[in-house]
Specification:
0% helix; mainly beta; Thrombin, subunit H; four-stranded antiparallel sheet
């Protein structure tokens, strides 16, 4: 079964995850929105201020966390979260050249994201504090990230053609 998005806009549904409210949440890069779909197929979309969303995960605080990057001629890069009631908080990343790509919830209660523009793995706490860790291989462009069964964070390196692992 498929659930179509509206035909009046160019959609680019990108990532999807289960939310703490029992619904599924997805990012729509084409319309700069975060979408919620119920198990019955009812879709609601929540507009972002300026940036296009990428990866999305449930966070330790009950919100859905997502990365934002430039898209469709818009500027800015950041990390945002949306509460199950649709309240959105967006936080720009202050470092120049940031290009967050994916995000994962770590076992330490923080969110971890890949930043292929700065060749780093970033950590953001639920209160918005950001820390950075350079990837070992120069210009490897970390892309996807996930929490492994071993409690470590695992990530892909697009240019480096490697899989990376780091302890939180």
């Amino acid at each position: 079964m498929e659930f179509p998005l509206s035909k009046d806009q160019l959609h680019e549904a990108y990532d999807i995850t289960a939310g703490p409210d029992g619904n599924l949440w997805f990012t729509d890069f084409g319309t700069n929105t975060i979408g919620r779909i119920t198990l019955a197929g009812e879709i609601t979309q929540f507009p972002l201020s300026t940036m296009s969303p990428g990866g999305i995960v449930p966070g330790p605080d009950g919100n859905l966390w997502f990365v934002e990057s430039e898209g469709s001629g818009m500027s800015g890069q950041g990390i945002g979260h949306i509460a199950p009631d649709g309240t959105i908080t967006e936080r720009p990343l202050p470092e120049p050249g940031s290009e967050p790509f994916d995000i994962a919830t770590g076992p330490d209660g923080n969110l971890w994201f890949t930043d292929n523009g700065r060749n780093e793995i970033g950590r953001i706490s639920p209160d918005g504090t950001v820390a950075r860790c350079p990837v070992l291989t120069p210009d490897s462009m970390p892309e996807r990230i996930t929490l492994g069964a071993d409690g470590n964070l695992w990530f892909t390196e697009w240019q480096g053609n490697k899989i990376g692992r780091m302890a939180p």
